[in-house]
Design brief:
The chain contains 23 helices and no strands. By secondary structure, it is mainly alpha-helical. It has three domains: 70 residues, Leucine-rich Repeat Variant (Alpha Horseshoe); 125 residues; 133 residues. The chain is globular, with a radius of gyration of 21 Å.
């Protein structure tokens, strides 16, 4: 039964899109709803998206998500474009993305030039997942002036999604070696995630340098899938310090070399660092390495994160939870398949909730929420699949 449930859930979740309103029948999920005036309750909920109390904001988001799309979409578009509270505009734009309505594009497009940093961040993330012809030119121009600390990483990921274009390749390759470490880290990670083999040489150079970017570069080499990286990685096995070894092992595994043994090394390292005080750097490194393997589609690594994470306590729990959260937003079908098949579903969901409390990827989280909501409505009433989705909705409070 457990295996059948997991397979059925995966089938429901395999197409990871932004999802639809939980009140819209699945048969109409791709139709543009006819606009209706928002109810007073819906408008009040949108206004509450900017309240100071977290519980009020959470309840408001939940109510908006459950509103009929015909009312919610126009109301969110209006709020994102012109609400007096800048934070309400931001949250409205995030929630709008979850309805998967084609009209969101125009609001996202205008938000690319908005003075509000949060809105630009959401808009860049939107065009990462909704690539369109000609957008790379606009993104490249934005990269010349965008310096928002939390905005530029989203812009970088958006650019990486257009990596087939020569101008983008040239710009991102140069950014590997130039700029602040915070931004360079985002560039290297994005290039790895989008398998940008064109940037192999500068990433390989960074991987040889002990410093804050070395771990990112090592993992990125494995993601690129270029076997030339083996020479670099084998040398790092001999020379890199201990806290870099989980990344080296994960990267070699990603290249398809002795994967089981390298994966086992990373898992055992995380177990050791979790149960022994004073190895927080090794714990963070192994959790990050396992996340990279899990995002690449290795189920055992997701199981390991949950198995070790559930009984853990801070400071060990936080990096493990963050790693699981990374898997949830980067490989949602796999994360939900593994979580849904577990007998400790609620505890697994609580670990994921800890991650979402720390993550700063609002649009990615909303995409995850929308996918779970859609799976709830697609599943038969009383089915295991619906109960799984219901538990996640309750625990994660969306």
């Amino acid at each position: 039964m457990r295996g059948r449930t997991a397979q059925t859930l995966l089938a429901l979740l395999v197409a990871v899109t932004s999802g639809v309103s939980s009140q819209v029948p699945t048969s109409n999920s791709q139709q543009t709803p006819k606009a209706q005036a928002p109810t007073s309750n819906l408008q009040a909920a949108i206004n509450n998206l900017g309240k100071f109390e977290a519980s009020v904001r959470t309840a408001a988001s939940r109510e908006v998500r459950r509103a009929p799309a015909a009312q919610a979409v126009p109301a969110l578009m209006a709020a994102a474009s012109g609400h007096a509270d800048g934070y309400v505009r931001f949250r409205a734009l995030v929630l709008l993305a979850g309805f998967n309505d084609s009209r969101a594009r125009e609001v996202m497009l205008s938000s690319l030039d908005d003075p509000n940093d949060r809105l630009r961040t959401v808009a860049y993330a939107y065009f990462e997942h909704n690539a369109e012809r000609g957008m790379s030119d606009r993104l490249l121009k934005a990269a010349e002036k965008e310096d928002g600390e939390f905005v530029r990483p989203a812009l970088t990921r958006a650019l990486a999604a257009y990596g087939a274009e020569p101008a983008v390749q040239k710009a991102l390759t140069a950014l590997v070696m130039r700029g602040q470490d915070l931004y360079r880290s985002a560039v290297i990670e994005a290039l790895g995630d989008y398998k940008a083999a064109y940037a192999f040489t500068p990433i390989a150079e960074v991987s040889k340098l002990d410093g804050p970017l070395q771990e990112d570069a090592i993992i990125a080499l494995g993601k690129l899938g270029d076997k030339r990286a083996l020479t670099v990685l084998q040398e790092l096995q001999r020379t890199a310090k201990r806290s870099r070894q989980p990344a080296v092992a994960a990267s070699i595994c990603l290249l398809g070399v002795n994967c089981e043994s390298h994966q086992r090394f990373v898992i055992e390292t995380m177990k050791f660092a979790t149960t022994n005080i004073g190895y927080q750097d090794l714990l963070r490194a192994s959790a990050k390495a396992l996340a990279a393997l899990a995002v690449a589609g290795r189920p055992n690594t997701v199981e390991a994160l949950i198995d070790i994470g559930i009984p853990s306590r801070d400071p060990a729990r936080s990096p493990i939870a963050l790693a699981l959260g990374t898997v949830a937003v980067r490989n949602t079908p796999l994360a939900l398949k593994i979580i849904g098949a577990r007998t400790d579903l609620r505890e697994s969901a609580l670990l994921l909730r800890d991650a979402f409390d720390m993550l700063e990827e609002d649009l990615e989280e909303e995409r995850f929420f929308a996918t779970v909501r859609r799976s709830y409505w697609q599943a038969a009433e009383g089915s295991p699949e619906r109960k799984i989705a219901e538990t996640l909705i309750q625990v994660l409070e969306f």
